[in-house]
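User: Predict the structure for this protein chain, please.
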Amino acid sequence: MADTTDRWQPSPQLRALLYTDFDGNPADPDDVIADALDDDGYLERTPGLTEILQDENADPAGRLLACCALTSWADPLGYDTVIHAATHPDDVAWRGQSADRFFSQDDTFGLLADAVGSSADTVSERGTADRRVEAARALIALADRFQFDRHISSLLTRELVEACQDEIRSVVEGGITHLASGVHIPFDLGLQLALLTVAMKKFDEERANDAMLRLAAARPGERALRELADATGSSLWTM
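Assistant: Here is the predicted structure, written as structure tokens:
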């Protein structure tokens, strides 16, 4: 979850909700979120996390964790919060509360992408499949401007790719133009675009192949070229 500094500590309420397992023992939030799906344990933790998420005066890192948990559980408030964050990316209170280890850039949208992706098994039970798709669309639409790194793959499952074709096409086109402009980009946009163009092949192979060629010409970086090579089975991309 959030890669916060050693000085950050969860509030007592958040510690009880996401840092304590269902036997009352200290635990990692990722484990608590996963275990909460067993025997509908998430129902016990949802009200408290809803309170934290909706409290504008609460610790931003805590609100981010609450949003990730609720979204992972296919909660409608979680999805709606992701959609709002993605459509108002510069106004999100928790931006900067988590950073990746490679570029030291904000990776909060990547965490939200993982949460949306991991909620697949719960949407039918909760009747929130449409909201999940909307959340995925909103996040994918950011991928030419904000860091996701490999987290974008969480949104590129077959069912989401099918539902987000327009967003993928648009982001790939905008992203290649941005990359080709030569402007400094503080994250690995090339990798994100490579992953998206590979996903595009599932529904528009001709356009995807053309996008791959243009992406390679824009000097997307070694990681991106390796993705293209792996996806096509050709080492020519890396030569």
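Residues 11-163 form one domain.
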